[in-house]
Write a structure and sequence with these properties.
Blueprint lengths: L9 E6 L9 H17 L4 E4 L13 H10 L5 E8 L5 H14 L4 E6 L6 H8 L9 H12 L20 E5 L2 H10 L3 E3 L8 H11 L11 E9 L3 H20 L18 H10 L3 E4 L1 H15 L3 E5 L5 H21 L3
Parallel strand pairs: 1-2, 1-9, 2-3, 3-4, 4-5, 5-6, 6-7, 7-8, 7-9
Family: To bacterial alkanal monooxygenase alpha and beta chains.
Protein name: Luciferase-like monooxygenase
GO cellular component, one term: cytosol
Length: 342
Amino acid sequence: MSTERSLDIKYSVLDLATVTQGSTPGQSFKKSLDVAQQAEKLGYTRYWFAEHHNMISVASSAPPILIGYIAGGTKTIRVGSGGVMLPNHAPLIVAEQFGTLASLYPGRIDLGLGRAPGTDQTTAYAIRGENFNAAHNFPRDIVKLQTFFSEENATAKVRAIPGEGLDIPIWVLGSSTDSAKVAAAMGLPYAFASHFAPTYFMEAINIYRDNFQPSEYLQSPYVMACVNVVAADTDKEAERLATSLKQLFMGIVTGKRQLLPPPVSSMDDIWNVFEEEAVMQMLAYAFVGGPEKIKAEMNAFLEQTGVDEVMATSHIFEHSSRLYSYKLFGEVMKSLSRSLVG
């Protein structure tokens, strides 16, 4: 697309508190704090956790708790949810939780909202109980949250304390065109899950931009794309590290989920041609390579999509390699922000 581009392309982190083989959720949380503290130093804008349930390799089932942990261990980086799966929660409870976080860490908390359960149907039933078959209206629930956060709600019979009167930015998250329409109609920033659901990415962000209605929260469209990033000194080393990511996604494709495995020298003996095709389709927006390769591919991606912000998620087995990958990616994004023109 041809458009005048900002010289300030923001870059952020999505964390699933991924549990590696031989590790525990508790160790994953400490590693997350390491990553967040480094990200803050490297100029990353925000650090989000995604709500998932009943997934052996994903420990981010309780984003508000992890958000408090990371915000308490950092000073300036924004921390939030990417996202809270709203059908799993009463809007009042979400308002109180994030009102508490925003009271503890003013000006640093984001509330990203999704409309999916973040799990399988059996687990969703365990979460919702008798509310499983209740009608869920995603836009209506967002409006309820906005009402709880508003100063005007001070005279209502039901109030969010804390939460009322606080500035807590709400984002709409999605992996389909439906969410794009919601974000556009409500005048809210839009974050797309292109790191695992790339199929409708371009269509969704075009729908969002074409139908965007300015609001008191946002005057013009704002798009964030989440992508997979595995960066290393060389393309060859990055490709080796990325075999952990590919094995993880193969578990999603086959239904045989596992803890994040160590990298391997070749995937040839691990997947068949159909599994490879399915995994690589899901990983259409994966940036794997040395700094120059990632810079060239990210530059092309930014020109093609015109996104305002890139959120990187990095499933890398070795903690030191993961930290280094985020360091390299931060440097690439800084250089692109300086050099990118329309």
